[in-house]
UniProtKB/TrEMBL annotation:
<dbReference type="Pfam" id="PF13578">
    <property type="entry name" value="Methyltransf_24"/>
</dbReference>
<protein>
    <recommendedName>
        <fullName>S-adenosyl-L-methionine-dependent methyltransferase</fullName>
    </recommendedName>
</protein>
<dbReference type="InterPro" id="IPR029063">
    <property type="entry name" value="SAM-dependent_MTases_sf"/>
</dbReference>
Length: 308
């Protein structure tokens, strides 16, 4: 027996067990992924061979899009609420948006009076022949205009309708009435606390031309306003699209607008050939027509699509 209390035989058996443990440890270490990586001359290849972790599996599960027409890129709401009576549309919008009171009551407010002109009607392509052609053809009771600026085209369509048929036309003008970044470099509008008062000048123009009973502004973005109109069942016979001119804005406006078009109605817009955003408007119109199986009718700078 030695100084540790083990006999020589016990010492040899413990030594054997210790040696065996070392052998097992080394064999496990040498076959581990870490040692394999250390031995590998190309660590990248070795990493690629490791089983994917969860995030890799999630990424690899996203299959390539083969039928892009079924993706969220083109899936817009196509069915809106139950249509309300045309003669009830104005009352509904006044109740929903203006607490039942016309925004033209006691207009203009005192704070805006110093900055308003009696008539400052401006627009682009707002009196082209396409307006008279479509107003006479469709004889609309409700017109939806996306992008109104100072009301030039809305006032023109109201004037055409008044001289073309007997029934009253109701024109819904959707615009945020903020202009666009940098527009005051070209158009000198007074700014008060960040507001350029385009809405008030639009309303002043409508009031001066005696169309307060026919034209109603909806001062919201086109997408939010049309979503509400869709929910409320407000449809239009004629829709003019002339808001933002980049592809994605025009694409949304055309898709949402078409869902509000009555059967037999017409949707048209400006800047079909404008180069902005690589013909953003034209590309949006053409793509929509292809997806819906419609025919685009160019009319100068305007485009026309008819509902099926």
């Amino acid at each position: 027996m030695n100084m540790f209390g083990f006999s020589n035989g016990g010492k040899r058996s413990h030594g054997f067990l210790l040696l065996l443990a070392v052998v097992f440890f080394l064999s496990g270490f040498l076959t581990s992924p870490l040692v394999s990586l250390l031995k590998c001359s190309s660590p990248v290849k070795q990493l690629e061979s490791l089983p994917p972790i969860r995030i890799h599996k999630a990424a690899s599960a996203l299959d390539p899009i083969t039928d892009w027409s079924l993706t969220d890129l083109v899936l817009f709401r196509t069915k809106c609420g139950e249509p309300i009576r045309q003669e009830d549309a104005k009352t509904l919008l006044l109740n929903k948006v203006f607490d039942g009171i016309s925004p033209f009551v006691e207009f203009p407010p005192e704070l805006a009076k110093p900055y308003l002109r009696e008539k400052r009607i401006r627009g682009w392509g707002s009196t082209g022949a396409v307006f008279a052609r479509l107003v006479e053809e469709v004889k609309p009771k409700i017109i939806l205009e996306l992008g109104s600026y100072l009301g030039a085209s809305a006032i023109h369509m109201a004037t055409l309708a008044k001289s073309t048929f007997d029934h009253q036309v109701f024109i819904i003008c959707v615009d945020d009435f903020r202009g666009w970044p940098g527009f005051r470099d070209k158009f000198k509008f007074h700014q008060t606390n960040g507001d350029v008062q385009l809405l008030y000048q639009f309303m002043q123009n409508v009031q001066t031309m005696n169309f307060t009973g026919n034209i109603l502004p909806l001062p919201f973005s086109t997408t939010s306003a049309m979503s509400a109109l869709c929910e409320w069942g407000v449809y239009a016979d004629l829709i003019e699209v002339d808001a933002a001119h980049d592809f994605h804005s025009a694409w949304a406006d055309i898709n949402l607008g078409y869902s509000l078009l009555k059967p037999g109605g017409v949707m048209f817009g400006h800047d079909y050939y404008t180069k902005l955003d690589n013909r953003g408007v034209g590309r949006a119109v053409d793509l929509f027509a292809r997806l819906k199986g419609l025919r685009v009718e160019p009319d100068g700078q305007h485009w026309i699509l008819r509902s099926k």
